[in-house]
Amino acid sequence: MTESNVIALTSSRERTASTASGYLMLFILLLSIIVQIWGIAQLANEQDGLLAIVAVIAAPIVLVFVACGFYMLQPNQAAAITLFGDYQGTDRATGLRWVLPWLMRKKVSVRATNFISDKIKVNDLRGNPIEMAAQIVWRVVDTAQALFDVDDYKEFIRVQVEAAIRKIGARYPYDDFDHQDVTLRGHLDEVAVELRKELIERLSIAGITVDECGFTHLAYAQEIAGAMLRRQQAQAVVAARRTLVDGAVGMVEMALASLSEKKVVELDDERRAAMVSNLMVVLCGERDTQPVVNTGTLYQ
């Protein structure tokens, strides 16, 4: 038997429970109190003894029977009804409710709840240790599954969130210095959508869905953070130098073309090379240039 078949056989499904409004039963409760007071008063006056005795005996029984069946549900709250361990249905109607006293009620909140995971260490696609944490907004959509298909659905959520983060974190690199692949740092929204799909699939067995998902922490682990920072700085310097050199080459080409077009000066190959060298030094140097006066010729 496969795992999917086992889940299908043991999966519970929520259904509507047979319950009653508590306001009618509250009226009966008050009526039983009045009847008991009347019976006591009749016995005290020694009038209608048999009827008074029946009222005094029956009224407390009705009072206890009715009082034990009351419960109250607030908005976005449900109650799972069981009879000697057998699931009878779920009541989602708000207000004062009533069921038979021997039916047990287990209240479950179906409100949206926010959960923030702990920071966990994960190895990304390239094996680099990184730290990740996520926040999810979840809610119970099937009370029967949440109560009867998992032992503790809140603890189940915590474990499954950690497992999903590890799986998604290992699927992508933290960063791609060539900017060609989907990365955790550069594509947070896309990765968050994939994490939400993974969580919905994992939590469906517990009757829970995920409305929103996102990362609250994403960084290299401390043992490699310094090395990765130096690598990023070096790559930033290289990228800046590349941009600077590309711009300098374009300016040199423009200068030489303008001089040739306007015939300001005739340059042979050697003088052209010397001029290119000087311009590149001036444009690409980190410090201010110091002019040097040449009183001779280029060949001296």
From TrEMBL:
It comes from the Bacteria. Residues 68-236 form the Band domain. The keyword Ion transport does not apply. The chain crosses the membrane at residues 20-38, 50-73. SMART domains: PHB (SM00244). It is a single-pass membrane protein. The keyword NADP does not apply. Keywords: Membrane, Transmembrane, Transmembrane helix. SUPFAM superfamilies: Band 7/SPFH domain. It is found in: Membrane. Pfam families: Band_7. InterPro entries: Band_7 (IPR001107), Band_7/SPFH_dom_sf (IPR036013). PANTHER family: BAND 7 DOMAIN-CONTAINING PROTEIN, MEMBRANE PROTEIN-RELATED. This is SPFH domain-containing protein. It comes from Sphingomonas brevis.
